[in-house]
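Take one protein record:
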Amino acid sequence: MKVITISEENHGLIGLATSFKAAWRFILENDWFSAHDELWDTYSGEYVCVSDVIGKNAEDITDDELIDWLLKEAGARYDTCFTFSTKEIWGVE
């Protein structure tokens, strides 16, 4: 079985998930990140507000919308301070 480890740059390992989507849901539901937060834009070299990048008021962005955006857009350009790693869990006894 494979799991996704979830690490935050200042806190280290903060959780495990069964998929990348589940990892982002863990982060949002445990108040590690929201549409009100800022991201590091590697292209401009500046922090930018998530809601500004998405183009909606933070209050109008649902968790599902934010997760979909993070899965599609955040990786290469925006640094969220979270890293994910796929690990294999062995169950052989």
User: Anything to note?
Assistant: The chain has a mean pLDDT of 94. The chain has three helices and six strands.
